[in-house]
Amino acid sequence: MTPDFWIERWQKGDIGFHQTSGNDLLPKHWPSLKIAAGSTVLVPLCGKSPDMVWLAAQGHRVVGVELSPLAVDDFFREQGLEADTRVAGPFTVRTAGPITIWCGDVFELPAEAVKDVAAVYDRAALVAFPASLQARYAKTLGALLPSAPILLVSLTYPDGQIPGPPFSTPLAQVAALFGATHDIDIRETRDRLEESPNLKERGVTALEEAVYAVRPKAG
Known about the structure:
nine-stranded mixed sheet
């Protein structure tokens, strides 16, 4: 799963993972994290998700991380926002109001980018990685943000039905990645096959979407 894979997906418009209206699990379960207004939220692999706009409307500052420059351009254009641009190492950083997007590889994200982050919202990052990179991703989050809770949305489907992405990430995998350092609270599970025609067409016969509140263990 190379960076070029995702760059090409955006260039081709092959973005069935994008949710034009955002994810309804976010407003339903975000309050469970009890994150104060004014706090900063990290949205890894943010694409052009309108979930960032929702988080900003709750009074949060938002830091997105996205590999595709096209996705970042689309976000600001579609939201009617004029962004200031600067360069920070290998990243292009664009900011409009309370929303900043670091365009580059999430695995190279510097501590500077997340110095004020109080929580993470992950709707499309973990499931975008195969198992080997999921472990690296979880380790990266843990190193950068050891005290930040995560609202995590995952997908689970029968093993081997499609090669991914998205990659099936059941509770057992979430626990293997985060359970040693975090408490995992299952907030909701639901059947999403009929709402995911692109995956159904690819051969998925059952699809569960789950949302977890993943909180660092006390002490």
